[in-house]
TrEMBL record:
Coiled coil: none annotated. InterPro entries: Man-6-P_rcpt, Man6P_isomerase_rcpt-bd_dom_sf. Residues 1-22 form the signal peptide. The chain crosses the membrane at residues 193-212. The keyword Cell membrane does not apply. It holds the Pfam family Man-6-P_recep. Keywords: Glycoprotein, Membrane, Signal, Transmembrane, Transmembrane helix. This is Cation-dependent mannose-6-phosphate receptor. It comes from the Eukaryota. GO terms for cellular component: Golgi membrane; trans-Golgi network.
Amino acid sequence: MGFLNIFSFFVVYLSCTSFVNAKDVCAAKAPCVCAFPNGTGIDLTPAKSTTFYSADTFMVKNNGTQYELSTYYYHPCLDININVSQPNLLNTCTSPLSICRHVSTMNLQNVTNIFKFEEGSYDFMGRTNISKFSDDGDSIVYPNGPSETIVVLQCANTENRLQVLSLSEPDKIVLAFYSRDACLKLVDLEGRSTGSTLLIVFFSLVIFYLVMGVCTKKFLMGATGVEVIPNLGFWSDLPNLVKDGWMFLCNGCKLPARGAGPAVSPDPNSYDSI
């Protein structure tokens, strides 16, 4: 009896947690495409361009004696080379990539209000072939060693535009990409196979059937022990039924030959006995 109570509780708990913890995840289908189970998702493919989208920002350092200018370059969906015209700069953006940052500085000279401009460097910040969508599909994460760059996808009825969203954490720079293509829409991709759908439906119905059957027999009908299992006779005979079905298929869908039955004396009241 104790085992059956534990079994009943486990079945109910498993079913409830499966429904409560179920969360739709935007699964990556392509470098810039993710889709939810219902067929909607994000597709940035139309946002691909021959050039990088860019966004500028600056920071004041050293008590106002230095201005650091940063330009972020972003190319969604595909890694391409960025054109660097100054060959002598420190440059880690030499291979195809999706995000690069150009940093330059303006330093105050001894003469009042005179600044000297220095080109600075080009810094690699991420590539598409190692990027991943967030579970909710609202952003794309570009790993870069110990740090990462996050591009937040903003649905906007405007031209494609890049903006710096947050620089508060140097190891987690957040950019925002505004685009019509960042809006949720139906994604034209091959969905779940028919077999997978049928299996999901089948096991969902089995779990629902077991939970409702156990609860009904235990709490409404007062059953105890193994009696709480709905249709216990069927489940007990199921292995034999499967065996008989398998033997039927192995015999070429032919019924097994029946042997002669035991001899039976004719009915004394039948016509043949007269």
